[in-house]
Design goal:
4 copies of one chain form a homotetramer. Chain A is an alpha/beta fold. Chain A folds into 2 domains: about 150 residues, Alpha-Beta Complex (Aspartate Aminotransferase, domain 1), CATH 3.90.1150; about 250 residues, Type I PLP-dependent aspartate aminotransferase-like (Major domain) (Aspartate Aminotransferase, domain 2, 3-Layer(aba) Sandwich), CATH 3.40.640. In chain A, about 40% of the residues lie in helices and about 15% in strands. The longest helix of chain A is centred in the C-terminal third of the chain and has 22 residues. The two termini of chain A are about 35 Å apart. The mean pLDDT of chain A is about 95. Chains A, B, C, D: Pathway: Amine and polyamine biosynthesis; ectoine biosynthesis; L-ectoine from L-aspartate 4-semialdehyde: step 1/3. Chains A, B, C, D: Its cofactor is pyridoxal 5'-phosphate. Chains A, B, C, D: Keywords: Aminotransferase, Pyridoxal phosphate, Transferase.
């Protein structure tokens, strides 16, 4: 392992908790080079919703490469991009009655967020943005400024401004009405709050500790934005692509955000790709006003097209995620209830699940215990106090049970 | 073409100059879906230095995918990453006497720049950065703030601060000593210049109009940084990976930057990947202080490893680029000299070449004329007045001549 | 009046509500040039706490000028400054057990605030500051950034950053615990709140609409600051110098702020002067690091010294303000109760009083009606909905009754 | 002197060089409390252009106070303000063909600058401002951001942004054309310079080291501003009111700035007062959008009115300042020439004069030697290397000679 330690920066993190060298992967499983299998309840932090190297996508990808399909095409027109746009329109937008123009903002989720913020500011002529406590939107300067984690914010080396954090759903355990404070500030011309161009929100905060907003809170947020002429940006980078059940995580709430950020699993195979979907009338950009090198990676379009058509042409996957997600949730609840003195909480929705522990140390130990038992899961939350589960949506029933069992044992081993 | 117009944002740009739908690609050639070949003198804006779908890289990539190698691995340890780090160390760093720690900052060049700026600020405790006139470093907020183009800057929607532009090499056509103004400001405690954490520079400005800094200017810049305790960041995203001849574009100057940004052709196949190389003693990051989803794309490591070992284990490619680049440069000079009244200028170095026209309109027409003749090249420069050539480094002698000939005809057709 | 309209900027404001030309002034009375007296319930927005041209101060001032005492002395040592510092120490600080170093920050309240913010940031190395809804701290860029009024903020022409507004006492009518939101944000490392250098607060918000914080709220605020290592800045520019009863408005709460801003009535005669009082261990400034031309106006020191010794050597004035302030408050309450359907509220403390009307239009009409009846008072609050009373502390009992009577009539005339 | 040391902040500065306690003052003389006279070649840093306690102004002031004229009047209409506006119009503006609306921005020069910057940004919708190397404009956040001195900038505790420093006249000793760099940046859409709302300039930099811009440079600056639609702000706080000869320091250049800042000697007696003069069509402020407590100090209006009418109704004072200023300049040149090996430089214009020494230490010693000999002068410049002379404009011929003689002796004593 010495080359990693010798050459890679101290900033590396996941490798610290999982100190093996991975080699192969299939479905829900990662294998270390000595052949040990690991049940992957992390799934690339949500970038592998259809599991590792899904056979259908794999074959399409190999065929495309084999045939010398264009690989890299900036924002030129390509057959691969056309196929993807058609699939997006037919499979996702039209059936849901959604009208969006598509921006290819760059290869990653942070690019999708940066493009969204830029556009919102350009359109409104306002600089301020409202974000939420424990939000995570990315590591580039614009995305970082709307991210909550103080360690990550500190890395910026400059004061992060133009964003004001507001309490996320149930930040005060429901003791106070939703948007109480925000609405008061917006309506009071003497409040000192800079008038916001946009509000950016995750429907479930993954990095923030698997905090799932209620649909009524999301609806109220959408109404508030409309009332105050604020653009609503849903960052669906981690929770989109079916993570919570429906393709878009905001579908259950019945809202239509002005701007939607997608990435992670949009290519379906782990290849970098991102989208910023914008309300058609917001498409006021000059040609090239936002650009970038990696906006036309055709292999990602190819796997993305196949993923959309294969998994989202009907509601099979959505129903499966809801059902298995519920089973997973119940499993976690049982674990929580088995340790009544440990003040655990089962959290989440669909296949974005977690157990909140008393502190980050405990959660870390549980993840370590799970790793020893062959399951990959990670901590999240401001103090790393939540063991976070983001398994592939394609998890089998057996793998659900297997995962629950390992987690049960790991928790028991740590809390014993 | 209607799906593109119907669904893709107005922000699209390259597709406007090249209104065909591309399908296949091989070596120096792109093919539209109706089978028309285009000689690619743009090469993914520098992301395809080894041409399209290089057979050796293609085979390695297919093998990797076929064998279910891990595709997406965050920053876990993988065999693919280990192989890449070893190649990087053996082929690039050691032979050049360079000592760097490697940061995987995210999938694109802007991520490499953002990580570089963050680190420079964190280390020095200073916020200000010096950039250069007509610099281009990316579209995310941190990278955009050190970029020159006013249209792109305007897209930010917030004032871009913390950066002060200084004149790039020969910005005043050599009438004034290098760094005259900057040194005076740095030495004058009353100058009002915020003390800079870092200076960020491209050795050849691609987007800025193919402005190649002289090696003595780069050396003087490096000396100035050392003298004033300023970190020197070389953004080698476009000019690295052999674009100007040597792997690192700063090798000819004999300098050792504190931080180097790489992306575009580092994966060798057009798959998103980026690196930030940092002086070992600058590696002060906390684990996870900078992170991101797409920092461990194994297919990019695989093609990157093969590209390094295949093209950079000896100096064959470097010599070839120097030689063919000179031929290309001479070809452009001949074209320039054939139009003595048109005030043209041949610019550039290695395989980063250009012709500066009187205005952007003329340059645009020349590019359009070339497109009609089956050659892809684009404009750059503040007013789009430079026709920019970034052909694959693997261009054959015949393709060099073919390109020169098409450009010659295109220029003649427009200036006639 | 034409020279005013012809030459003075549209930015003028008070002259719009009181369109007469004033000439002379004595005690609680201003006289227009045609000899009409006006009972001054505005007192220079709190700059004339001892009334206009108090005979004792006037004589001291004339004597000083007559004897060619130094008028302007930058920050040199002068006899006048020495006398002032001695009086400050003997009359104010020592008897109250307060230890402060004195900064002469410039001539006005905004200078006192700017100096306070600069010092707090320098000491802590943090940029962020917490301010409160409807705060007013001044019109210079630093002071404006912690001010709430959106119209005034808009005048800055740049985004005002580095400050986050928090709810002032009873912003939610007592429905929520004090500092509920702020404490949660401070304790949550993922909240996204930039760690604050300081909290700046007025004990009674004058411009904000005569909002008087409860002493228990102020105490809790002080405790919170201590607990989280945040500097507490009390802006006593308008509420200090006895406006609420005691010299420092925070005395009733029994707290000791880290930094105190004074101005307005500190010179006692309306001559510009300001002080920033700082905890001795915070005195880390370099000589001249904060300076300015008008920091040593001896006439202000002279009247200031006499004001301190005459009015604050015992508790006569303090008791009088408390008693008459209560009478004034009761008078306002009677007026409010006489109009049960008009949803009026009597507000304030000491001689900082007000009536809140349903809207700014009504409050403006009441002030206009009072002006017609020979009483000066102004509106405040985010929508100008509060008629604000800041009479001289030296108001006689008869003038209290006279004022109440005019206000009663004016309210009746408007609400009839 | 213990009360000063015990109670006053370390930030005090002038008192360190002149460690005596001053008491009385008349004309060009300050007296310490033990009766020692000091010839004042500092004149309140330019706030006492008519000397200390000028008899005519003194009598007018005493009369006004004696008669209970309004002292403090916010921005109400007063007889004192009317008289002042009339004098300003009749004596200053009309005869010079200048049309300005008058803003009373607050009590000091920094307020005048803050108002100017706010207005320029509001009007243009741009945030950026160009300032000059070694500029000094004040200590509040807006004014400080356009000030050069790094020690003073460091006091801000936040990054000072939105301003870019450009080289002042002869910053490179005339080796380079004026505005060479600035014009190039403005004309190059890729330069990375944020488009400026305004350029702020002193015609002679006092704090910056008595750098007097040539009239042709000022004219070129004015032309450049017109050409590029940039507002020109002349900060005449220190150099206005006759300091360089004419009332406005820019008169010799024949330019008409869009905005002019005045303070220091505008009241004529050392009482705080400031003006921002704005081109009539720039008067777009909302009532009260910029306000403040100390904008209507009638004693300052009274002495200001008398100063304008007495000193500026004809050109007697202007001619005298030019003549005596030349004599003073010649005297300094003789001193400089008497020390050919010490690399001294005589600098300045009118009664803004200085000698530049090899370093700040020498200049400081010369000022100390002058103090011992009964003359007050101070250092300026980025390293305090310039002994700065700002004597009263009313200096007698004898006092000119006396000053020169003391300076001659002091220089000789230090350089011996």
């Amino acid at each position: 392992m010495s080359i990693f330690e010798a050459l890679e920066s101290q900033v590396r993190s996941y490798s610290r908790g999982w100190p093996v060298v991975f080699n192969r992967a299939q479905g829900s499983w990662l294998y270390s080079e000595d052949g040990k299998p690991y049940l992957d309840y992390f799934a690339g932090a949500g970038a592998l919703n259809y599991g590792h190297n899904h056979p259908l996508l794999k074959q399409a990808l190999i065929d495309y490469i084999q045939n010398d399909g264009v690989t890299h095409a900036l924002d030129m027109y390509t057959v691969a991009k056309r196929d993807f746009l058609e699939a997006l329109d037919e499979v996702l937008l039209k059936p849901r009655g959604l009208e969006y123009k598509v921006v290819f903002p760059g290869p990653g989720g942070a690019n999708a967020v940066e493009a969204a913020l830029k556009l919102a500011r350009k359109i409104t002529g306002k600089e301020a943005v409202i974000n939420f406590t424990n939000a995570f939107h990315g590591m580039t300067l614009g995305a970082l400024s709307v991210t909550g984690n103080s360690m990550k914010r500190g890395g910026a080396g400059i004061p992060l401004v133009h964003a004001t954090p507001m309490p996320y759903d149930r930040y005060f355990d429901g003791d106070y009405p939703d948007f109480f404070y925000l609405e008061r500030l917006l309506e009071d011309s003497g409040s000192g709050l800079n008038e916001p161009a946009a509000i950016i929100v995750e429907t479930v905060q993954g990095e923030g500790g698997i905090n799932a907003a209620r649909v009524e809170w999301l609806r109220a947020l959408s109404d508030l934005c409309k009332k105050h002429d604020i653009l609503l940006i849903v960052d669906d980078v981690q929770m989109g692509c079916g993570r919570t059940g429906p393709f878009f995580s905001f579908e259950d709430a019945g809202i239509k955000p002005d701007i939607v950020c997608l990435s992670k699993s949009i290519s379906g195979y782990g290849i970098p790709m991102a989208l910023t979907l914008i309300r058609p009338d917001l498409d006021v950009w000059e040609p090239g006003e936002h650009n970038g090198t990696f906006r036309g990676i055709s292999p990602a379009f190819v796997t993305g097209t196949h993923a959309l058509r294969n998994f989202w042409s009907d509601d099979t996957l959505e129903k499966s995620v809801r059902a298995k997600g519920e089973r997973l949730g119940n499993g976690l609840t049982e674990i929580v209830e088995a340790h009544p003195d440990a003040s655990l909480t089962a959290k989440g929705k669909g296949f974005a699940r977690g157990i909140e522990f008393a502190d980050g140390d405990t959660a870390g130990k549980v993840c370590a215990a799970a790793f020893e038992r062959g399951l990959l899961m990670e901590t999240s939350g401001p103090d790393g106090e939540v063991a976070k589960l983001l398994p592939p949506l394609t998890l089998t029933d057996a793998e659900v049970e297997q995962g629950i069992e390992i987690i049960r044992e790991s928790v028991a081993a740590v809390l014993r």
